[in-house]
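G.,

No rush on this.
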Amino acid sequence: MADADAPVDLMNRDPNDLNGHLQVTFQDILAEPEHAHSADCVWINSYKCYTCSKNLCYKILTYLCGIIVAFCWGCEFALIAFNHVWIATPGFKACEIDLICCKRYYSTCLHCVLDPCCEAFGLLFSVFKKD
């Protein structure tokens, strides 16, 4: 669990660009075409209202739910890791070992049926020679 001891980068909180697609600034959401402008005071105050309400709502939601949601996601990924380590990987390995005999049987049957046919067709077509 070395991740818990690593320092948290408070400046770059998305170093792997996981949420680069999330564009929620005023200019990304609202835009007026060239010949349909509202009054300047409406546009300026709309910008301030949008930005303030977005930031305030986001902060309130993170204060109320952020830690709980982070805890839930931590548990979810711990369960996924546990499942892979203790259930899925050993299960796949057991299945792989169990199916080796089926693979050999299937391979033998295919060789018994297809090898003579392929050999016969090879001999048949070897008679035709290009001049």
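When you get to it, here's the other one too:
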Amino acid sequence: MKPRIRVPANFGKEHINSPVHGNIKLKLKDGQEIKVNSIIMSLNSPVIDNLTSNLTQSTLEMDDFTNSAVDCFVESMYTGDVEKLEKLNFEDVNKMAHVFKVGWLSKKCVLFYKTDILKFENNSYREIEFACEIASRAHFHLKQKQFVSLFVKHVTFDLVSKNTFLQRYLAGFAKVPRRRIDTSLAVASKDLNIIGNCLTAYLSSNFECAKFDENVLHLLQKLDVGKFRQTYPSQFMELVNFLSEILEESESACDEVKSTITSFIKRRRTIAEKDTRNGTSEMELEDIEGLEDSVDFGYKNVQSQTAYVKSVWRQPPICQWEVIQPSPPIHSVQFITLGETGQQRRIGLYFRFPAGKSPSPNEAYGRTFGMQCENNDTSVWSYYIYGCTKAQLNSQFLYNVPRDKVKHWTVTKTFTHLNVTCNDVTVLNFNFATDHSTGFENSSQVWVGNCSSVLFWTTYAENLLLKSQVT
């Protein structure tokens, strides 16, 4: 009967390769051997215990792992520590811990991944890809989901970087391993518009009206239709319409392509019908005056629908501050940008505090939020919040602005946040206390309090409609 010794424990690494105690040989890739003690190894690993005690094996093949990883694994069994664990041998050590069921070592590997591998020195694509690939392979080969979860939780992406990373990560889409597709879906999380855009771009240049490659089929089957439709309805519909066009125009498409597209569209319709039964519209856009639920924010007929909206909304003066009065304590302003707007179109909101009640008495009695269209084709919009960020545009960016030509915006200031939505997609939810730039630590004090009024300003000569109570 083996003594009841709890592992990990320090048995002394000086006993590795002992001619007296080393009754088991580990055979490495290049013909080298490491002599280890069967009791020490068995105390740590029930798998090795079974191989040596029940199957009476005296030699174990380790040529599936690098020599560095085997050396680290053995020393860990003898010392209860992971001093030799490093980024280059991590995957093999983690795999050995999994294969030989060394539970405590598996936990050490998870901790090392979190504290060392997810610590990026330069925040470069290569560093992030390295960490992502480790997580992806561990999930696919070892069924270890925790590494992908850690990657998604601890790697933070700004507006542009997640899109850029996933585009590079899925480059050469037809040849990427399927596990990369699954990992990309996890990284994208709710931002499935990024995946949809990658798929549309790939099909636009690679589909030959005959068949989909295996990766396209896999992605269409894995894509969470409900989440995509709910979070990015307009871009989801762009993908649905694109696939529908393939189905209608490609007479030579094989049965598998037709079946996959039909199934994808059917899943969309099933979810839409379910939402309708539950009392919600597919787009779930807020009812605004004169803008009925039937209005399609995809806008195939921009001119007619623009004329309809103009009948109940009004065009503000250009380059003039105009006072509007939303009701406190929630200060909310709605406006619509219409059709092709070009670039460098600016919009400003000046939140005025009552005289004598400014949160910063030594400064002006108001604060400005500004936003600007940097690129209409890609729907890139920048912003600034005076007192919270640099007071310049093209520095901070709104997040995932829908590419619809007609955009319904709502800007809302509360005591704690400035929130911006576009076609019911939240593109900014700025917490004054935590989201400020370096050097603006007092921003939460700058923006608290009720406003006496809000002023609106724009460089739009046309193609912008404002909904507000004008004084």
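The radius of gyration is 30 Å. The mean pLDDT is 81.

Enjoy the weekend,
O.
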